[in-house]
Amino acid sequence: MNYKKLAQASGCVIFEESNKIYVVEQSRKWIATFRYVLILVTFIIGANGIYSLISGWMNHRSLPLFGIIFASVALFLGFILFLIHRMKVKADNLSPDELNVFCILDTDRGNLLGPQNTFLAPLSAVSFTKIFSFTSSSPDLALSWPGGKIVIAKGNFFAGGIRPIVDVLNKHLVNPM
Q1: Which of 5, 6, 4 is nearest to 168 (CA)?
Q2: Boundaries of domain holding 125
Q3: How many Å apart are CA 135 and CA 157, to the nearest integer?
Q4: Do 166 and 107 belong to one domain?
Q5: Residue 96 covered by a domain
Q6: Domain check: are 115 and 86 in the same one?
Q7: What domain count does the chain have?
Q8: Whether residue 63 is found in the same domain as residue 118
Q9: Between 28 and 3, whose confidence is greater?
């Protein structure tokens, strides 16, 4: 199948294939936040290591031990960042067939379908809403219809928020936000 990625943010990826929009769960959602924290810690430890090395040599100490330790830890964390980046690139290149499908928007027939192509509701009855999240400053995004509701994106500031997903859904749903 030939999928085109329309949007990706906060643990949700939207693909288009012919006249169907696939809303899928992104694998490895933890990477964005972990990467941010790891970059911050690496920078702080690395800056302290460089400062300790320079001040140790300027004070004519034979071996600025703390500087060497901090710089080594920063290099190790930089290597971990490299591995995390490779993992993210792999996760970003997965197709919908390899991911968990939340739902499918069949724009030809005007239906919302479940993960196994089961009918859930007509697209005219589907809307999406922002939901307050206790664990994040970004809101969650939910698709709702008369028979149910599903949270498709857990808002994450470090993973792009929910705006890219909202923009794509506004183009394809009858009841935009």
Answers
A1: 6
A2: 4-26+101-172
A3: 11
A4: yes
A5: no
A6: no
A7: 2
A8: no
A9: 3
Q: Is residue 116 part of a domain?
A: yes
Residues 86 and 142 both lie in one domain: no
- Confirm if 85 and 79 have CB atoms less than 8 A apart: no
Q: Which of 120, 100, 121 is nearest to 22 (CA)?
A: 100
Token digits of residue 176 = 């935009």
In this predicted model, what pLDDT tens digit does every residue of 80-130 receive, in sequence order?
999 999 998 888 888 878 888 888 989 888 898 988 889 999 988 888 888
Residues 160 and 113 in one domain: yes
**11: closest CA among 28, 130, 38, 164?**
28
**Two tokens, residue 53:** 């090395």
Residue 40 or 148, more confident: 40
Bridge pairing between strands 100-106 and 119-122: unpaired
Q: Would you say residue 148 lies in a domain?
A: yes
Tokens of 91: 């996760």
Contact present, 106 and 118 (Cβ < 8 Å): no
